[in-house]
Amino acid sequence: MRRKLTALVASLLLAAPLLTSGSAALAQNGPLRIEITDGVIEPLPYAVPDFLAETPAAADLANQITRVIAADLNGTGLFREVPATAHISTVSDFNAPVKFADWKAVNAQALITGAVSVNGKQLTVRFRGYDVFADKELGAGLQFSGTTDGWRRMAHKVADAIYSRITGESGYFDSRVVFVSETGPKNDRRKRLAIMDYDGAEVQYLTNSAALVLAPRFSPTGDRVLYTSYESGFPQIHVLDVGKVQRRVLSADNGIMSFAPRFAPDGKMVVYSQAEGGNTDLYTMDIATGSRTRLTNAPSIETAPSYSPDGSQIVFESDRSGSPQLYVMAASGGEARRISFGKGRYGTPVWSPRGDLIAFTKQNKGRFHIGVMRVDGSEERLLTASFLDEGPTWSPNGRVIMFTRETQGANGRALLYSVDILGRNLKPVRTPDGASDPAWSPLQQ
Amino acid sequence: MQTGTKISLAAHGFLVSWAALGGWFSSEPLPIKVQEVAVISAAEFAKLSQQTQAPDVSETPSSLAAPDPAPEPPEVSMRPADRPDVTPPESTAIPEVEAPVPAEPQPEPEPEVSDSLPDPVVPPETAEPLPPLPDTTEPEALRPADRVAPVPVEAPEPEVALDDLVQPEVSPDAGAEIAQEVQEATAPEAASDRIVTEANESDEAEPAPPVTAPVTSVRPKTRPRRPTPTPEPATEVAETTPEAPEDEAQSSAIEDALAAAIAGGGEVAAPEPSGPPLTLGEKEALRVSVSKCWNVGSLSSEALKTTVEVAVSLERDGRPKVGTIRMVSSTGGSSGAARQAYESARRAIIRCGSDGFQLPGDKYDHWRDIVMTFNPEKMRIK
Q1: What is the value of pTM for the model shown?
Q2: Facing residues of A346 across strands?
Q3: How far is CA A421 from the centre of its chain?
Q4: Could you give the number of structural domains in chain A?
Q5: Residue B19 is inside which H or E element, if any?
Q6: Which of A356, B16, B95, B301 has the greatest number of beta carbons closer than 10 A?
């Protein structure tokens, strides 16, 4: 009994310091500290009252520019416009102080104000952005000047600036998309190259439908387009000057099929596939001199090459393992390492402008997907699923992917869709006819 | 005694014993078959025997009586009654009608395109009215909710307007003595707790297994302050100082320095809070109330990798002093990304604190100064 009592007393004595330190830990030392790890992901509410028309001739344009800005921001899925009917304040003077309380009351977290003036053909757009809950401007106000013909581009530039100031990354609204316009039934489809603003406006056709055209790709500066044409009866690579609408054949070897071209980041080299003697391999070509370099030499099919943004590596599609998979190798050729290991077939890889992701088409269990993975093949994420999705292309800021979606059946039609890299905000892109093979330009200068 | 005699005696003894005792070891009786019999009379036996005799068969068959006439079957038509009476059409002369001669198929015109290439792309001379952009928002069926929140809320009724406040619909009552203002029913927007892409929609249909793991863990308490060491001669301190300082001591020093910096650097330090500290529940309520307003949806991917520590001082009514909100530190991203992350954190504190955080007034000294760590790691992987 005495031994038990002794043990109890001893254990209490040993535990006493621990209990003392525990109660001391409960006492607060310094400011209260909390950690927030759960937030919400929802569109940021903002208000954009109609830009002020500072001249009578600017009345219509002021409204139209405001609407294009709102459509740009709303279309990202990251912003939600507070409707004008909910506004408490009106902006009657571009330089007057903003009544932040009125905009807080309608839960507008950002505010965009602007003014438009037209003098002859000269158009001037001024704007300011505000962080309503911080009671301060979002950066300095800006002014764009140009001709009235370019009012849409000015609206896109304002939206790009607002987007950049709020999200911290560059926008993608002042950009264009080249694609293959498709008309006619499935068994007699006519294809021609077309170019439009990223949002489907201002469509212009670059070729006629006399010859089949495929896979247009922008140059890094957006002034030229590479594409594959069957004008001579077999596929050949053409390069087209967008401004002058002048084109020339880049690979003119009779009997040799060349296709799937893509510019190097420096705009001087082109990587492409060449089929010769029943075997398809990757080559590069110096546009100025026409000199070629063979990158791969395998009995399998190597195609769909795409440069990394720094130009040091190339991701491509190959069936050397028995089924189409994705591989990465040095831009000068050499040993390639496989990066796709999931179930299904992978194709049409495209390196992100940010350099951190690769978009691809995947076919598995009778469904097509657009997906992204890291450049080492990890963290594969499928963003879409349908009867036929293919041909991804990145927005200039690497946040959005545009691709072709074709519907099933004899009356099936190809259309362009876009989705962000998290798989959200999936939506069709407006085109006048069927459309496929989109390629997104860089931001216009 | 000779062997033969012995054998004979034994055999005879056995024989005599068997004869004498054999009746005692009677074997079991064999099973007996029992046949049940019944006693019948002679008349019954005669009757049974009579049936076995063959009947007399006449040489000529007798004529059978005609059976009763069967009831007349209903008259059944060979055609269904509802079948139309189809009569072959009389051959009539086919009127000569001039069939329209189909026009020869014209090749599909190619608008806007000729053999020659179009003019270079130039902006139009005059601005045309902007056609209304199509509503390109994805049908709701493809997404459970546009809003991704840590805690999903029930979807509001379709006719309910979306608002941060939940309020019932109020319609004027004709019989009421006090006229009430018409009020539209509002409810918060439905939210999901994850991003559902088109590719994993089918997976989302299956209910997720219940999560039993703890959602949050209590932040480790800061190390208690050490008692101020008694000043000793420098030589003795040098002797007692360990060669490699412990990590805990370093972190404690950093914590102390950070607390001193937040409290105003070289200014007079705020008095130590007295009384009981905030309970875990009170801290959790504050954390949740800030989380509801922390919107990371518009942050760049780099900002989503940036953790920021934001310090704020609160009024006694729980409202933040906007001027005191400042970024203490940031980790994981560039200065630009940290600024974006800080701005979103700042908006969260101001928005959700505009009506005052619900904190116990008697513990004001404990929550007057707060350092909030905004860690978007969990939001990045959703």
Answers
A1: 0.68
A2: A362
A3: 8
A4: 2
A5: helix B3-21
A6: B301
